[in-house]
Amino acid sequence: MTFASLTFIVFFILVIALEEITNVKAVKEKFGNCVYFVRHMILLIASYIFYGWWDWRFCFLILFVTLIAYFAGLYHQNKAVLISAICIVLVVLGIFKYYNFFVESFCKMFSISRVGTLNIILPVGISFYTFQAISYIADVHLGKIKAEQSFVNVALYIAFFPQLVAGPIVKASEFLPQLSEDRNVSIRNLETGLQIFVFGLFKKVVLADNLSVYVDEVFRYPTVFSAETIAFAAVSYAMQIYFDFSGYSDMAIGSAKCLGYDFTRNFNMPYISKNVSEFWKRWHISLSTWLKEYLYIPLGGNRKGKIRTYLNLMLTMALGGLWHGANWTFIVWGSLHGIALCVHKKLAKKDSEQGVIQNILYIIGTDVFVCFCWIFFRADNISIAFIIIKRMIFLSKGVSHLYSWTFFSLLLMIVCHIKAYRKSETKNFCNGYYGIMDLSKISSLIIWFVFLGLTIGLAYTGASPFIYFQF
Prior knowledge:
2 domains; 20 helices; 68% helix
């Protein structure tokens, strides 16, 4: 079950209907203070149904991770419990996601036959909910939040279906307090949430999915295409992954808002960044924040000298790359960003004001570097990545194909970014560059239905799963 499916729409309508029943006065009077528990149970059961739609067996895995986090929170003062709980969660992640990768890499390194690999399926979203479990365990231990006494609340925090499969990675301190508040379905929440959701849907099924047709073809057969076509595909992929993942984040934020819950934004116009450090403050904000708080700072951050700071940055970004997938391409991608962060930290001048032209050049330079790194992220293996880079550098000849959807997507992104940059401080813009309209007005309703019609009419109808589902 994915957000961009008829099955999810039916599922979501049923969840909203059940949640709305708890707002009925008679129901509130009958259940009293227990009405919150009823709402949470409805959402928890719905979340497990949503997750089990892929493979019901993995519901036991997420339940196991939840039990570890819950009991680690209750016994948070015991350091041995803390370390054991985090290690167990990491072992779960390691077995399902990285075991075969490290075994195969070891065998190749020492030229021995492949032994000891496991024939297991990678559970959808395991990287996301294990990270949320770790953040809960760590925050309780550090005293940032109190240990949650309700198992249902902890289970709902880890398994809440809007963010379960591909994030954003929600902090326990941001979500758990909302469970003690009167969060429910309302016209205002539906009006806001549906607009955010449909905007994300447009980015996914119209822009990202149409771009994927061109990107997949070029990256599948790089030796067939010319240098300019390959470079064009690299730019196309930079937009595809942005529209795909930010679109999913919008849909997650929107669906949660419909139910009365608030998530912080996960993207903030990353391609207007003037340097790599700024890029990581705008791209996949929930992951970069998690890596900073639970990996970079515990390693020592910038508190133990310059050399140690650079090593911490490199290790954090390399592991951040590995988090995305069990492939050397992701480690190279993360390491390249780590090197760039170290270089920027070394050369950056504090409190230096730049002119408009210089800022534009910085933005272009940052985007060129980011697009180059995306080649490793997208390529199936290191060899293909180097073939692509080699063909671009030596201006190799081949089939030339400049995809029209790339021009359309790029133009739309530039226009929307400029508009959002100018109005980002005003209240009528919310979490990105989409405006929230008052649907009680006829003019807003007309725009809404036209936009909805365009989304349905221009949607790519082929099977194109969300990119971050594989992580």
